[in-house]
Specification:
The protein folds into 3 domains: 151 residues, Rossmann fold, CATH 3.40.50; 137 residues, no CATH class; 69 residues, Type Iii Antifreeze Protein Isoform Hplc 12, CATH 3.90.1210. The chain contains 17 helices and 15 strands. Strands 3-2-1-4-5-6 form a 6-stranded parallel β-sheet, with helices on both faces. It has a 4-stranded mixed β-sheet with strand order 8-7-9-10. It is an alpha/beta fold.
Amino acid sequence: MNLHNKLLERAAAGRPIGIGLIGAGKFGTMFLAQVRRTPGMHLIGIADLAPDRAKANLRFCGWEDERFSARTLDDAAKSGATCVTDDAAALLRHPAVEVVIEATGDPKVGIRHCLAAIAARKHVVMVNVEADVVAGPLLAQKAKEAGVVYSLAYGDQPALICEHVDWARACGFEVVCAGKGTRYHPSFHHSTPDTVWEHFGLSREKAERGRMNPKMFNSFIDGTKSGIEMSAVCNATGLRPQPDGLSFPPCPARKLAQVCKPAVDGGCLQIRGTTEVVSSLHRDKSPVPDEIQQGTYVVVACGHDYVKYCAEEYRLLPDETFSYMAMYRPTHLIGLELGVSVASVALRGEPTGAPIGFFADVVATAKRDLAPGEILDGEGGYCVWGKQVPAEVSLREGYLPLGLAHDVKLLNPVPMGGKVRWSDVAIDEADEAVRFRRAMEAAFRETSKRL
C-alpha cells in the first residue's frame, strides 16, 4: 500500500531505481509509457536488437527525443536520460542498473539474460513468461542464492492471479481454483499467424495500429499462452494442473464459483487446488454474456456456515449452494502496471510472484499431422501449440517443452493432437538453454510429484 511513498523517498534522496529494459516490443512499450512519469524510477537503458524501432516506440508512447538522447550508459547514469542500445550484455553489467526487465519473449534468450543479470547481482523482473515455464524454478533458486529477487511481472495475468491466491490464503480461505479468461474455441488450437486476426475478432487494420505481432497473438488464441500462464501460476503458488490440463469452459463472471468448482459438486474441475481458464465463447462460438476475457479470478471454499451467510449477505459471487465463492478482476493492463514489480523487488525485496517448485509444464502438441524433416517453429507458429500438463507426467513421458520447440528438426512423425517428445527432434544438447532445462528437471524431479 505504500510503494508510491517509497518511490517518492527515493526520488527526494536523488537515488531513483536504476532500470534496464531488454526488449521494447508491445509489453516493453507499455512500460515505457508509464516509467517516464513515475517518480523514483530512472530507465538507464533499453537494449533491443533494433534500436531504431525502439526509438520509434519511445516516440509513439510520448517520449521526447531529448529524454533518450544519452549516447552511452555512463552518460545516461549521470544525466538522468536514457540510452538506447543493441548491447544487452553491457546493460546487464552496468553498475547503475538495479533491476533488469527481461521482455524479449524468447525463452532461450531470456534464460541467458536472466543468468547474466543474476551473476551481476541484479534483480530480475521476468516479463518473459515463456522462459519462466521452461526453467523458472531453477532461475528463481539461483537468484535467491545470489541474494537478488526473481519476479513475475505485475500487470501480466500470472502475477495478478498469484496476488489473488495470496489474498485468499492470507484471509484463511482454501483456494479451489484460480485462473483467467480468454477467447477460446477447440478449433483455435489449429490457428496459424494467417488466421489469427479472424479468430481474435480483430480487423487487420486494428491489429497493425496496435503494433500487434501475429505470431505472438496467435499464441494467445491457439491455447498456448493460457497453458504457459497457468503453468507459471502453478509453479509460483503450489496449485496443481488438472490431469488433462485446461478445459476452457464457457463461463460468465457471476458464475465463476458455479463452474470452477469440483465436478463432484457440479462444476468442471477434476481436482481441487488447481488452475482453469474460462472462455468468452460458447462452443457454438456465440458470445458468453458478462465474460472476463481480459480478467483474472480466484474461487475459494467458504468452509463454514457463517461464511456462507456472509457470502450471501455481501453478494460475494457464490455458487448456488453458497459453498464456494469467487472474486475477480475484469481486466489487466500488462506493461502499464509493470512498475509495481520494479518497485516491489527494489524497495521491498519481494517478488510479485515467483516459482516455488516445478508442478506444471507446457509441452509441444501437434496442430496438424507432422512429418519427419519438418522444422518446428515454436510458440504461435504453424506446427505446434502448448498444452499444460502436470510436470511429473511431462518428465515421465519425456515431452518436449514448448519453449524449446523452435527451429528444431522433427525426426519422427507426430499425429495431430499428439505430444512431441525430446526423442522426436534433433535437439542440440550443448545449447545453453537446453542444458539449463535439463539441470532444472534434475533438480526438481522429486518435488514435481504430487504431494
